[in-house]
Design a protein that fits this description.
The chain is mainly α. Helix content is 79%, strand content 0%.
Length: 62
């Protein structure tokens, strides 16, 4: 759960800075957030969470 919350915060921060720099329009940010929200309710959510957890677990080994 802690990994999921921190990833949400990280992606939210990235979207915020992209919006501030003008690299991303508000409509595109809304579409990205909506895509993530609806993706989380599909069967793809579990493999994505497993992949993110595996990548985070591999970081200390670098």
């Amino acid at each position: 759960m802690a990994v999921t919350v921190s990833l949400v915060a990280l992606f939210g921060l990235v979207l915020y800075f992209l919006l501030r720099s003008g690299s991303l329009t508000p409509g595109a940010a809304f579409a990205a957030a909506g895509f993530g929200f609806f993706l989380a309710s599909t069967g793809a959510a579990q493999p994505i969470n497993q992949m993110a957890a595996a990548m985070i677990a591999a970081i200390p080994a670098l």
